[in-house]
Design goal:
Radius of gyration: 21 Å
Largest sheet: none
Order of helices and strands: HHHHHHHHHHHHHHHHH
Number of domains: 1
Structural class: mainly alpha
Number of helices: 17
Length: 413
């Protein structure tokens, strides 16, 4: 043991966690493409006018049912496990784990802020860092208390939105108005048709992109408040922390029975409720309308079970193949998940915004899903090649150096 803090060496990494991270960034990309391409802002008339309709509509509803929410849930779960690893490992080394943890989070906060304000409004890193600062409050809780808090937090949107219905309130309304005022000042049209094409028209370029980003943070946090994302993410963090603290991920074979139960009941409940959620999401009812509560209840009841069922299926496959699955190809992409997440933004802006090739604003899921899968396959290949020569991904190397305050060899000896 040593009292010097340092990153986890490669020979101590648990491959299944990197595999899951590598898998999660695929779902996150496919979900984010609805924003990058402008499809999420299209009017129904714009969507049905595309040559790829109604296939686009079917894929859009399928994404709501089987992708939306499921992969940020997995990413949040892995974040909680990572928190537990930092605590346990540094305590064993006689190092103050909270000092390392908070420094690591602060750097992530800065990276997230740069991503949010300079590149893309859909950033999730800034939110993760903010919520992560609360995690140490649960450090000394018993396992039962941790899981109880997790369930309460994940289900809390039902209570919050019930209050919003009773009092006809919208938690994100103020920030949305702030965003609209910024847009008006910058000449961004607020009508749906003009708004959805602003970044993608023939004359759109650098200035349009900067105008769009000027208000992006306000709309982003308006949405996060309206969707009660903060308690959901914290609740999933806590489940990850519970799994990590008990090192269940390191003893997967012992968890086979539990994983099979999670897979079974997660699919039994998650699939039909997720389909119902997708159907209710595309109606015209949202909070504070009373019927909007159906969205909240179905989301709370479907997303986590289905996400954990998918996760359990991957873990069971990993156990069955004794870690020799083709899924090992995803592990390098997971080892540099931060780099790949930021790279997805840069590639998507280049492909879809007017500042680049301008493919957005005119295609639906039938076309941008294959493009997204192509980006992901490129990242998997690139990541595997990268780790033949390097110890860390580029952004991971910077993040770790700033966290641990010492120079780390990026090249393999």
């Amino acid at each position: 043991m040593t009292n010097t803090a340092s990153p986890i060496p490669q020979n101590e990494r648990v491959d299944i966690l990197d595999v899951l991270r590598g898998f999660a960034i695929l779902g996150i990309l496919l979900d984010n493409l609805f924003g990058f391409t402008g499809w999420g802002y299209f009017t129904m008339e714009q969507r049905t006018a595309l040559a790829t309709w109604p296939a686009d509509g079917i894929l859009g509803v399928s994404e709501l049912a089987f992708i939306n929410g499921k992969f940020y849930t997995l990413f949040s779960f892995l974040f909680g496990i990572g928190f537990s690893i930092i605590l346990v490992r540094n305590e064993q080394r006689g190092v103050n784990p909270l000092k390392i943890f908070y420094r690591r989070l602060f750097i992530l906060l800065l990276i997230g802020a740069g991503h949010l304000f300079l590149l893309w409004e859909g950033d999730i890193l800034f939110l993760y860092a903010l919520i992560g600062f609360v995690l140490p409050l649960f450090r000394n809780c018993s396992d039962t208390t941790l899981l109880t808090w997790a369930v309460i937090l994940i289900a809390s949107p039902i209570l919050v939105d019930s209050i919003n219905v009773v009092f006809q309130t919208n938690p994100g309304a103020y920030l949305e108005e702030v965003g609209k005022k910024i847009d008006q000042r910058n000449g961004i049209p607020l009508a749906d048709a003009g708004y959805s094409q602003y970044l993608y028209g023939p004359g759109s370029g650098w200035q349009e992109w900067r105008n769009w980003q000027a208000s992006g943070w306000a709309y982003r946090f308006s949405y996060l408040l309206e969707s009660n994302r903060i308690p959901k993410v914290l609740g999933i963090f806590l489940i990850g922390y519970y799994v990590g603290r008990n090192m269940l991920y390191a003893r997967l074979e012992e968890q086979t029975t539990l994983l099979k139960k999670i897979r079974k009941w997660g699919f039994i409940t998650g699939i039909p409720l997720s389909i119902a959620m997708a159907i209710f999401e595309i109606d015209d009812f949202s909070i504070p309308k009373p019927m909007g509560l159906s969205d909240t209840v179905l989301y709370a009841a479907s997303v986590v079970p289905l996400s954990f069922a998918i996760t359990s299926s991957i873990c069971l496959h990993w156990i069955k193949t004794k870690g020799q699955s083709w899924l090992k190809w995803l592990a390098p992409a997971g080892r540099m998940a931060l780099t790949n997440y930021l790279m997805q933004t840069i590639l998507s802006i280049t492909l879809f915004y007017g500042i680049g090739f301008g493919l957005g604003g005119k295609i639906g899921p039938s076309l941008f899903f294959p493009i997204g899968i192509g980006i992901y396959l490129f990242q998997v290949l690139y990541s595997n090649l990268w780790f033949r020569y390097f110890n860390y991904g580029p952004m991971e190397w910077i993040w770790r150096q700033l966290t641990y305050g010492k120079r780390l060899p990026i090249r393999k000896q």
